Amino acid sequence: MSVPRRPGPDGSPLGEVRPGKQRPTIIREALFCERCSVVESNQNGSNFSQYGLSENILRDVAELGYQNPTPIQAECIPPALSGKDIIGLAQTGTGKTAAFGLPIIQKTAGKVEMSALILAPTRELAQQTAEALQNLGRSSGIAVALVVGGIPIKEDYKALRSWPNVLVATPGRLIDHIRSRTVVLKDIKILAVDEADRMYDMGFMPQIVEIINALPKERQTLMFTATMPDEVEKLVRRHMRSPVRIKVGRTTPVASATQNLYDVQESGKTPLLMSLLRESKGRVLIFARTKRKVDRLARALSRRFQVGRLHGDREQSQREKTMAGFRDGTNRVLVATDIASRGLDVADIEHVINYDFPGSCEDYIHRVGRTARVGACGMATTFVTREDRRALAELEKMISAKLPLVRSDIPVEEADRVPSSARASGHSRGTGTARPSSGNSRRGGRPRARSGRQNAPERREGGENHSPDHNRNRRTGPRRDSRTHGR
Known about the structure:
Oligomer: single chain
Shape: globular
Number of strands: 15
Distance between the termini: 39 Å
Strand order of the largest sheet: 1-8-2-7-6-3-5-4
Radius of gyration: 23 Å
CATH class of the largest domain: Alpha Beta
CATH superfamily of the largest domain: P-loop containing nucleotide triphosphate hydrolases
């Protein structure tokens, strides 16, 4: 069904058809609800040449230094190449992007139309996915377009006019294009959704359904994530046809990461953090719960270390500069919200520090997964306050393991040598003195009221674009923060 299209920046419609070529148009789709077969696997294939991939793909894979597929790749590539729908579950850092990326390249190379769509929850993850596909499909002639929020819309127009084979997008920006009819999707043959549970967490499911309804009925759907709660899996199955469920390994933090948990008071977090940073020599990634706390902590640490900060309120150019500095070593320390727990792929992160306990068990697994990637070694340290004990018990129940909790031996008095703006317990404007730690402790998830500007709630990270149904669609988890999300 053809539809009118909004003119592009030069006055011509973005979907204008060239001679001999076609652009996608919108078509409605029915929902599917069928059972799926299950594959439990810890086996690994021997090499990529077994899967019938093209010589161009094999050449690019070899040039990138990959010799043998990871377990998730070995199990997912064959059924994906055969056209089956797949639910792929594997720990973070195990190569899920190539597990769906290689079949997509194999199937779309040489085609004129845009025939594959990949959705990611954050700009950073979308960018890294697009870069990975470009590298894996360089010799195959794959053209990849990236459509994400936070950049001028004219950049989207330029990308869409390049006649891509593959479109990588975040849900919010793609919905804008679908509604304005600057993107139509009738030729999409493959839909891949990365971090499906994170999409659910961030309230993107209504947008995902709207995108699916704009896709052809006959298509292949690939869902990949590290964790898949039952309610999320039930929802995604409605949009798939007899999916093969492939689970590789257990839902636990990566085995090669050394996990240290410290029993600390709120006022003792920053002294302990400073001590750990002095001992670390490589890259360190620090997770804080709110955007405001990220800013305060990064500002204080920057007096002694080269520090970058990353959260959803920063401009896209700032986020890209921060990531580039962290990758090239300009900034050895990065302070971030959970926007970096799944959208960050940086080699050789020596140490991940959870300054604030993660909001859910899944977030813990993803945070720890930023270190010790693809079999490397790393360290993950988590600060645990008295208010975090219940969440810790839930985490231990999920991973079926006891996590030893060690009391911090860093004296709280050492906080006198730390800039007051870094202390999680807050700071007083003009005096430079910290409030008592109880002033920021949370009872039942509610922050204690403060006077003046500090009455404003701290903003937790919410991702690249919020759905208005965010809080309604969000699943419950251990000790969710009841503060507003970026409002």
